[in-house]
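Example 3.
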Amino acid sequence: MIGAGIAGLFGVLSAAGARAASEGRQQRVAYHLADLDRVLFVLGNLQNHVDGVGGPGQADIRLVVHGPALRAFHAISADRNMSAAAVRLIKAGVGFEACANTMKAQGIKLDDLLAGFTVAEKGGVVRLVELQQSGFAYLRP
Amino acid sequence: MIGAGIAGLFGVLSAAGARAASEGRQQRVAYHLADLDRVLFVLGNLQNHVDGVGGPGQADIRLVVHGPALRAFHAISADRNMSAAAVRLIKAGVGFEACANTMKAQGIKLDDLLAGFTVAEKGGVVRLVELQQSGFAYLRP
Amino acid sequence: MIGAGIAGLFGVLSAAGARAASEGRQQRVAYHLADLDRVLFVLGNLQNHVDGVGGPGQADIRLVVHGPALRAFHAISADRNMSAAAVRLIKAGVGFEACANTMKAQGIKLDDLLAGFTVAEKGGVVRLVELQQSGFAYLRP
C-alpha cells in the first residue's frame, strides 16, 4: 500500500515534471501593481499569464499591491467586474498580497479587503525584493 | 582551410570576449513596453542602451510589446519618426516581439506590424518571464 | 591594538551577519525612476524600504534616475519637501545616480543636482542592467 502510494505520488510528480520539461522551467513571477488606473489591465495580464502557461497550477504567480491601486480592492467599494476577475485569479492560485504600509495609510484591516489577500508585513516593496531574491521574476505592467 | 576558418572564428570570438571582459559581462536585457504614450521614450532608451554598451552587437536586447503600445507599431498607421527609430534599432540587432494575445485583441496579423517583429506566442507577459528565467535583466521604463 | 581592532571589526561584522541571517539574505535593490509625476511616490517607497528592512544600513538600495524625473532633482528648482525626503534617504545610505544622457539633454552638470548624486556614465538604462547582473533586484514603482 505504501509502495503504491509512493508510486502514485511519483506518477503525479513525473507528469508535472514532464509537463514542466516540455515547456521549460515552471514560471515563478511577482507582479507589481501600484497605479489605480492600471488595475483592470494588470488583472487581464494575470489571466493571460495563467492561460499562457497552460492554466491554473502551472506557474507560481504573485501579485503585490501597494499605493493607490489598493483602493480598488477595498471590499466595500470594489467594482463588480474587477472583483469577478480577482476572484477568478485567486481561485486559479494567484497569490494576492497587500502592503501593510498602504493598509495603514488607507485605514483598513485585512477584513476590509476582498477575500483571499494576505498582508506583506514589511511593506510591498520589501516583499517584492524578497520574492526576486527567492527566484521570482518581476513584472511591472 | 578548415583550420584557418576555425582560427578565424576563434579570433572573432576572442576579440568579442576580450571586449566583454573589459566591460564586464555582456548585457542581456528584456524591455517591457505596454503604454502607448511611452513608445517614443522607450525607443529612445533602447537607442541609448545600444550606444551605451558601445554600439550594435555589444548586448542582447529584446523589446516585448503588449497592450495599447502595440498600436503604435501597426504598419498602416505608424508615425514616421517612430518607424525610423524602430527600423534603426532592428538593424542594430534589437529583437522586437509582439504579444499574440494583444495581436488577436487588436485584430492584426504579423504582416500588419512593422517589418522585423516576431510573435510571442504564449503572450508578452509569459515571454518576459521566460527571458528573465533565461538570464535576461528586466527594464520597464 | 591591531588584534583588538580586528576583533572589534569582526564583532561588527558578525552582529550584522547575525541580523542578516535572522531576516534572510540582505536586500540589494535598484529602483528605477523616470516619471516626473512619480518622484514623491518613489521617495516614499524608498523610505518605506529603509524602514521595512530595519533602518539605515540594513540593505543596499540604489535609485537610478533618468528622463523627465531628473528635473525634480535640479538643485536650483527643487521642491523643499522633495529635497528633504531625498537628503534623508541619502543620509540613510541610499545611492542616488543620475543618467549621463539625461544630464546632457537637460544641460546640467553634477553640481547642478542635489548634493549626493553620482553619475551613471553609460546611461541610466545600462546602469540598471549592470546592477541587476551584479545581483540587485529591480523595482519600478
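Helices of chain C lie at 2-22, 39-52, 80-91, 100-105, 124-133. Strands of chain C lie at 27-33, 59-65, 95-99, 117-120, 137-139.
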